[in-house]
Every structure is written in structure tokens, then in C-alpha cells.
Amino acid sequence: MSAQPIRHDLSLLGPDDMHLFNEGTHYRAYRVFGSHLLTHEGHAGTHFAVWAPNAGSVSVMGDFNGWSRDTHPLRPTGSTGVWEGFVPGLGRGTVYKYAVRSRDGAYLVDKADPYAIHAEVPPNTGSVVWDLDYAWSDAEWMTTRPGRHALTAPMSIYEVHLGSWMRRPEEGYRSLSYREIATRLADHCERLGFTHVELLPVTEHPFFGSWGYQTTGYFAPTSRYGTPQDFMFFVDHLHQRGIGVILDWVPSHFPTDGHGLSYFDGTHLYEHADPRQGFHQDWKSYVFNYGRHEVRSFLLSSALYWLDVYHLDGLRVDAVASMLYLDYSRKEGEWIPNQYGGRENLEAIHFLRQFNEAVYREHPGVQTFAEESTAWPMVSRPVYVGGLGFGLKWDMGWMHDTLKYMSLDPVHRKYHHNQITFRMLYAFHENFVMPLSHDEVVHGKGSLLGKMPGGGWDQFANLRTLYGYMYGQAGKKLLFMGAEFGQRAEWNHDGSLDWGVLEHESHAGIVKWVSDLNRLYRAEPALHERDCDAEGFRWVDCNDAEKSLISFTRRGRSTDDIVLVVCNFTPVPRENYRLGVPRGGYWKEVLNSDAAEYWGQGFGNMGGVEAAPVPSHGLPHTLVMTLPPLSVVFFKSEAPSESTSEAVTA
After folding, report:
1. pLDDT exceeds cutoff 80 at 3
2. Which residues are catalytic?
3. What is the pLDDT of residues 27-76, one digit of tens each?
4. β-strands 95-102, 108-111 pairing
5. SS3 of 342, please?
6. 397-403 long-range contacts, CB within 8 A, separation 24+
7. For domain 534-637, which CATH number applies: 3.90.1140.10, 3.40.50.300, 3.30.1490.20, 2.60.40.1180?
8. pTM of the entire structure?
9. Any idea which architecture 157-527 has in CATH?
């Protein structure tokens, strides 16, 4: 490709763009920064714009000019810190970088475009001129999704790492492309009843082993699996199949790779200069300077870009705790207090609130999710009442307590009963998602099945009990891939899920159990309408530590919608077990984890139990039931007749 001289008589950035960008309120800076295909005075080409306020010079280079750092210099736009220029003849597919020199000429580095919408396939690190043309076919989904994302709607999320979900052994064990995985993943989610897929970050990243959490391309879906249009097809196809798509988004830190954001113009531009503020010791990465207005514009534009351009249904913000606390994972003397002497990162708090306000204002039908591992108050409460403004928060406390409890030999569980009941002291302080995520099956932690005590039948029964308890509880649900069939091995990002185990009845039983849990969760208003409302939950008995049993009711907004959930965390079957219930009539056994189809032993209640008018547990009626070993049983109250009394209990 022969290069034509660069022209400087065209600018995409107007005064309003620069004002908003410098103010930290340009929510769509991607429309004017980066590379854009244009036709100017009859000449088709590409316009480039990059922010590098402390640079002495910036040039664009690529195959088109033999990677010359001098032949195509960009021109500064006044004193804005933005460099731009138009190169006629450059089209879609052009690979490029910026050659950035510091003012003293001592620093010279080749940088990828921070606003690039496409990139070379790693390990190559160049940016690629591209367009975002695509004909969407998901209008029905986009119209109906606000109702699907309401806090009263069922939300069962399947967390996926695209590169290791399924591979092609006949082709060098390569990962599937966006288009290849779309139909397979939609089929799988449809069979199992998941409402959403959550993707580990697909934002471009140089190191595959970071799973996307070390991001360099905040506007580019990784080219490992295809083009931007291929990723659009992926989202579009899932939407057409009735499945939402959530993206894991990482504004908390970025890697130190030389072609990335770090030390971008010879100064610490995107990151804090002081390592006590700007460097994560845990992740060996840089921390964004949220106090810098242009950095906020960059990040906020990235967030809205994925919602605007790719029709995504939500953003899960990674490592929120690391953003909120100045002393996060730092020892005394390794951090700088805020202006009031505290440990709270006031600039990050402002940014997160601004992020949530912008997302919900521009896309009211989506949800934002916080991975926040501390007791920071009001994470999922509106900004106008002092909250951070997220729609939902991951319940990390529930996850830790529950997995610790479930890993115990059942004979010891009675001494740790509070680990399974403590959640209800705080369960409605936030709008919670209950996550069993990728973080629980890596770094030597083993698989979820591997955490369960016993062997053979007991291990699978414990796993079914864990899932049943999770789906009975109040809160949205999340399972990482492989958990839905009881993968034995710890997750390996360089491999594939072990789909072969589905040939075994034990693993097939887990799949059937998860699919039926999803079906019941979605079908029964009592199990989802009040996931975030204390009125939807009532303990029947949380004190039977000796038998390691808990029982509770879930209610929908209609008084007819009542489901009783009973969990037996020991391998001892309980016959003639008495529990109080709020009303008489027949209570149908709608789900039993010990059924033979789940690889259980077949203990049960012959379809249901008739309530007797005998008070128990502070309730007016009693059920006398059989509780299978290591099981969860769901009973649904059939709508009472006029002659059947019901106690209205709080």
C-alpha cells in the first residue's frame, strides 16, 4: 500500500467535544477519537485522533508507510492535548500504531490506539482501522429487555470464558470463533434454562492467561475469535434466542505492556505517578487516575460504547473494592490518605456514581453489577440517596460461607450452622447476585464438585444440595461454566470443558437438576419476584443445627404464590419430619434433588403432603414429610379454597 501525504484540514473534534472531554463528561468520545473511515473532498481515507498532551510529537505509522515514525506526523489541535490528521487512501484493515515522542525527545515508543475498535490477533499488538457496520435483528429483544432486567424478573446467569468453553481438537485444539460458539452456546443455555450469559472480559488483552482482566483495548473485542461484526453476530444471535449478554468490564486497573496505556506520552497520563496510588502490587498493573477528567471520559465512553454499539445488556464491574479503598491490599506507609485523612478513594467513588448514572440514563433497560467484596454500604442503592448506583452486587460473603460449610464432612456441619443461616441478617441490605464464579475453581481451589465431601454418590448429592439451596434463596443466580454438569477438574483456560463426562449418569443428573432448578425459578413468581425484597422470605426453622436442617418459605407478590424450601445437609433421611406452614391444603412436591432422574436414591413424598390444622413453628398448619438424605425439596402450596384458612404472616 502506498502512502499519501497526511492532511490536517479536517477535524472530527468540535469545541463541544473538547469541552466535555476535558470536563470528564464526554460519554461518547469513541465517536471522535481513534481511527475513523471518512471521505473528505472526494478522497476516502482515515482520520486519526489521539490524546497525548505531554508529547513532543505524535505520528501515525503502519504498513502503508513502511512503519516510518516520521512521514505522517499528526498535528496538535490548539492546546487541547489532542493530535489528529487525515490520511487519504487508508481503508478498512489498515494496521497502525502511534509513534509518540516526549517533549525532550528522550522517550520514543510505539503505542496502540487507546480508542481502537479492532486489533491484530495477539501476540501482535497493532491497531486496525475498521468500521462498525452491521444489520441487527434483535429488535424484539431490545424492546422487551427492560422487563427481563427488572429486579422482579428471574435472572439466572451462565458465566463463560469464550476461549475455553469448547474447542476443536480436530483443528489443533483451537478455540471456537464468535460465530461458531453463538449457536452452540445458545442451544446449551436454552436447554438448561439460563436467562443470561456473562462473558469474562472480551476487551482486547495481550496475555491470554489473564482471562481478559489485563485489558489494553477498551473499545475492541478480542480478535482471537473474530472481527467486531463477528462479535455483533454473537450477541445478536443470543438475543434472538431470548438470552441476554453481560460483559465483565475492568476499569480498576490496566497492564504495564509497553504498547498499552502506561506512560503513554512520556508521562503517567492514564495512571497515577505515585506508585502508592498508581500501582497494584497484587496484579502488577497500573491504577487509573480517576481524578483526571480525560481519564473519566475515556472510561465512561468505553462503558457506553459496549452498550451503544454491541447491544450488551449489562456490565459487571470487576474488583470494585480495589477502587474504593486507597489502602486496598497495601501495608501501612504504602498508601496515601484522602484529603480528609481517610482510606476511601473519593475520586473513584465519584467515578462509579457517574458511571452508573450515565449507564441508566442512556440505557435504562440494562443492569450494572458490582463485584464488591467488603461491607461498603449501599453499593446497589441509587446515587440520590448516597449509594454507588449499581443495580446489583455480587454476594461474596454468601459464596465464602456456603462453600466453607459445604466442604465440611456432614458430621461436623451442626457445629457451623451459622455459616448457612448468617446471610439472612443482611440479605436485603443490597440487591444481590449469588455467584459461584470462575474465581472459585482456579489457582488450586479445585472444582465445585471437588470441594464436596465424600466420594461417589455423596459428592454428587452434596453438589445438588448446594445448587438447590442456592436457587431456593433470595437473590439472582450465577454459575460458572462446567459447574452445570459437575466438572471434576479445576478450570484450565488453555483447555476445554470436559464435555465427555456427560456420558455418565452422575454428571447427566447434575445437568438435569440445574435445568429443572432454572425452570422452576423462572416459572414460580415466589422464587424470583421478591429476590430483592424482605417480604418475599420467611424462615420456618433456621435453628435445627442438630439435624443440619433449614426450611423457609418464598412468596411472590400474589398471596397465592408460596413455595416451601427444605434443605437436609446430612446423609441421614428424616421421616415424619414436622414443619409449620402458613396455610392448609395440599403442598405439592415440585422438585426433589434425590429423585432418580438426578442420580438420587428416590426418597420423597409421593407427590406432596396435605397440611394438618395443627400449629407448629409459629404457623397455623403442619406438614409431616419425608426428607431425603443430602437433599433439597421444594413444595408449592396449591391455591387454597374458600374454606381453607390462611394466616398472613410477616
Report:
1. no
2. 318, 371
3. 999 999 999 999 988 899 999 999 999 999 999 999 999 999 999 999 99
4. antiparallel
5. coil
6. 397/422, 397/423, 397/426, 398/423, 398/432, 398/434, 398/473, 398/475, 399/434, 399/435, 399/436, 399/437, 399/440, 402/466, 402/469, 402/470, 403/436, 403/440, 403/448, 403/451
7. 2.60.40.1180
8. 0.96
9. Alpha-Beta Barrel (3.20)
